Amino acid sequence: MSEKKNQKEKLWGGRFKGEAASILERIGESISFDRKLYKEDLEGSRAHAKMLHKIGILSREELQKILNGLNTIESEIDSGEFVFRSELEDIHMHVEARLTELEGEVGKKLHTGRSRNDQVAQDVRLYIRNRILEVLDRLDSLRESLYLQAERNIDTIIPGYTHLQVAQPVRASHFLLAYFWMFTRDRDFFQFAASTNDELVLGSGAMAGVNYSNDREFLASELGVPRISPNSMDAVSGRDHLLQFLFAGTQCMIHASRLCEDLILYSSQEFGLVRLPDGLTTGSSIMPQKKNPDIAELIRGKAARTIGNLNHMAVLLKGLPLTYNRDLQEDKLALFDCVETLLISLEGLEEMIRELEFRPSRGERSLKEGFATATDLADFLVGEKGVPFRTAHELVGRLVSECGEKGETLFTISEQARSAISPFFTGKEYDRAVSLELSADKKNSFGGTAKARQIEQLKIASESLKTSSRTKE
What we know:
By secondary structure, the protein is mostly helical. The chain contains 19 helices and 6 strands.
């Protein structure tokens, strides 16, 4: 026989005479995860209590007792002394029940003019606001690490790839700054998510407003919220701000996953372009030679979870009628998981970027064996010798084919073999035409991989970091 609970023990139990089934309690509890909101719930409750005093519901003495009780509860939770009980369902009921134990009947006054619907909606907004600040800090640390590595490796030439085939020589700084700008866009996206999130919904009641002359302007000021929701029905049921956070988180984790994929490939024996330190890799239980890039692989896997969280939220919301429905209890699972996944992934990525080392000799070997300056040689024939492009393309193609048959590169094939294909494939002009470093420096358009443009891009990136720092201040 299933255990029964007296529904009158619930904070909402006055309406009920019968006993609650065990499944109702077990399926309805959210304290196992929404306890993460305790600081935000206490912050909102303090502001609400002050507002109740301002409009005459609480006396000065009652307000002080409530604030003292809320401070005690925060200390108990912080220290791990607080006892969570599934029958109290959520963090809001835990706070109210404990407040009543500590301060007596005045604890029951705290919920005046407030519903759990607008209470939890505000808690989540405060939680998102606080977590976005943490995400921005992690993004800035990652971007700074990318910047510093780019600055150190401006003279390191590595292959740039298309179709995962060697394409053209690029500076390692160019590769790193590509991700710097991706994560800069992510930072902008999170700031946009913060702007959509930063709204006061407390004071909306269950869905239609409240029967008290509550002072929402006062609440907004207390909570540091710049905007007040104009519609109570939308306020308690809208989750666009949560979707925006998950969109931003998904985009950020996609970028993180792509960078991890590059690091996994580049640190492999076949590529060998970068080396990760022992402290950020693992070995094999059976193969003693292995050095596995586990952090990168795990972050790549965690990106899938983040995408799943976004999908979870979109599907959860797409069929809900106005206003609050209990389904919305499930919104926090996706949010909490996304936050935790983001923060640990950005930390892991930042450590890998900070500690990795490039191997220029391996980059040079890949570029030479991949005939990465074949296009430069064709452009030399066109630009300096007046050869039609189609003819130049054919001559270089023949030279590459000859190299392939002889097991040579554009750098090692003999001048005699080159001159047999074209008299222009001789002397210092030829050497300059196939030079890896000169190839990179020819890409001198704005945003290109030439050294002068990389110095320029680093200055722009530095200003972006300074702007982000000033914004946080």
